[in-house]
Amino acid sequence: RKEVEQDPGPFNVPEGATVAFNCTYSNSASQSFFWYRQDCRKEPKLLMSVYSSGNEDGRFTAQLNRASQYISLLIRDSKLSDSATYLCVVNIGRYGGSQGNLIFGKGTKLSVKP
Amino acid sequence: GAVVSQHPSRVICKSGTSVKIECRSLDFQATTMFWYRQFPKQSLMLMATSNEGSKATYEQGVEKDKFLINHASLTLSTLTVTSAHPEDSSFYICSAHRGGNIQYFGAGTRLSVL
User: What separation in angstroms does the CA of B52 have from each of A86, B34, B92?
Assistant: First the structure.
């Protein structure tokens, strides 16, 4: 089983749509969780951290279910500029404390159309 | 603005040459930096952890003699791909922590070996 698994998509949605991405992780000792966004041929950029209580940042809502080892990202009112690949990222804390290495999913591609 | 600077952004070289990539933390000190590699349509994979003043820690399957890492100062880590071959062509990205458990990425280096 892959350490971090995502549906690769692509998700093709019209502007204004709501879209949800899911991610599962295999290491139950994982310590922290993130969604990163990666534009074509660019570096990943942090979109948001994910907390057990769920967190929201504008149109973006992230949720974590530790029991099911499942992470989700919801994007409301999609914009053209949301088109990118969304990476589910897990920190397994291997190198001690919070500065462990990150395990990346392959990403889910989102394409928002006019 | 950028938190981590990576240079060069693009390298095209002949097979057998060595290529050096620099990663700098801007306005903060990074005792640990990370080097990742991403092949097309694949996830980022950690290659090694660069430790200031000591040897790098390499992930399984990554040849330390081929991918030389030097972290001589608190703001600079370098990755040298020695005797590069076409199969080394990839997107190389470095990252560093700036407080907490958030990693910031350099803009990446796209290496093409002919």
Answer: 31, 11, 20
Distance CA A7, CA A24 (A): 10
**C-alpha distance from A42 to closest chain B C-alpha (Å):** 6
Residue in B111, B113, B114, B112 with CA at minimum distance from that of residue B6? B111
Which tens digits make up the pLDDT trace of A35-90? 999 998 888 998 999 988 889 999 999 999 999 999 999 999 999 999 999 999 99
Smallest Cβ distance to B49: which of A32, A49, A101? A101
- Residue A82: how many CB atoms within 10 A of its CB? 19
- Spatial CB neighbours of A44, under 8 Å, sequence gap ≥ 6: A36, A37, A38, A87, A89, A104, B44, B93, B105
The rounded distance, in Å, linking the Cα atoms of A6 and B65 is: 33
Structure tokens at B34: 């990370």
